[in-house]
Amino acid sequence: MRSLALKLTLAFLLVGLTGAVLVAVFLSYRTQRELDRLVLDQNQQTLITNLTRYYQANGSWRGLEAAFRSQEDAGPAFRNPNPRLEALRALFVITDPEGKVVFGGRPGLAGRKLSNRELRSGVPLEVDGETIGWLVFTPAIDRWLPGTPEGNFLRAVNQATLLSAVAATGFALVLGSILAYTLTRSLRELTAATKEVAKGKLGYQVQVRSRDELGELAASFNQMSEELEHSNRLRRKMTADIAHDLRTPLSVIMGYTEALNDGKLEPTPEMFDTLHSETQHLSRLVDDLKTLSLADAGELPLIYQRIEPDVLLKRTASAHKVQAEQQDIAIQVQAAPELPEIEVDVERMVQVLGNLMSNALRYTLPGGQITLASGRAGEQVWLSVADNGEGIPAEDLPHVFERSYRGDKARRHPEVETGLGLSIAQSLVEAQGGTISAASEIGIRTTFTIHLPVEK
Predict the structure, then answer these.
(1) Pick from 184, 199, 48, 186: nearest CA to 126
(2) For the whole model, what pTM was predicted?
């Protein structure tokens, strides 16, 4: 049995059938008990009076059963149509003063002695203040014979209960089939969608039909499918960009080496500087790709050390001081006092800040300023690199951390840009439990902010 819809249908049917049977049994039992109680309540006092009168007339219980059957001098309580006779007898037993059964009840009770507990549930029969016996009622099931009014009533109730149980079971079967189909429809659609995604049709969407767990599952699948398509698109774009970045320096290197090999060019220091520069560009690209692949695999080696945030800022400022002076750009460090130490991989964090600093220097005009700042926000310490350069267009800002993404202004420096720097910075920060974000206003200010936890 592989069909989930069939399993659910049978489950609904089993639950409905079980409930119907239990209700039918309980209703039949309760109807029988209440009918017994009604009959006893109607006949109890008359029965006690007639039994007491019989004992007074005979001086004992001898001959009671014969009198009950013949209905002679038995009184109104014994005067019943013949089919009711045995049914009424099953409702009670009569004992002598010691509790020994002398009449009534189920066959085989005659002569049995009832316990004190059983006697206390009955009614004492007394003559002149003396207990002459006990009248004990004995509830039972199916005591009323067919043909009696009580028996006919119980049979009608039982038939109605049975028909109701059958109808409820049929309704449960129909409702269970509908519910099973409805519940499994979304699962069938998700199964078909996963097969489409497995075939390479990324971005495939399913209809969200409800707001329950199945609806959440469908929505999660749609989100996953969109992210897979987006990641695949970025991967293809990054592959094309990297191929382009590799082709440019390789073309330069191959052109020079072929010309040198053919004797068309004479080696010069300038030529070797160019070859060395292009080789460094290739080396940086390879290192960037290696860092990203390790971060994606969760295998990036990190050596954590405790360090004060202002030490990181000052080290970054010092490393780029000469380049900033050459470009006529001022560097300012604004470290908040008494910040707690943070536990980070110092070299990796210097790499991140250095990357942000290089970007700021690249896009800040002469006479501009770069500010390195730090502070605390709750249980986090933040580090920021801000410049008053050209800024990042609003349409580019959400994509700056995507791999190989280049805004228009970045294309001014194709010889030094790989488009992976900010992606690497994000991967390194997130690997250390932090976050990085960007904010910018065109022509006013661009700020990259890193948030790191105070304690890990």
Answers:
(1) 48
(2) 0.51
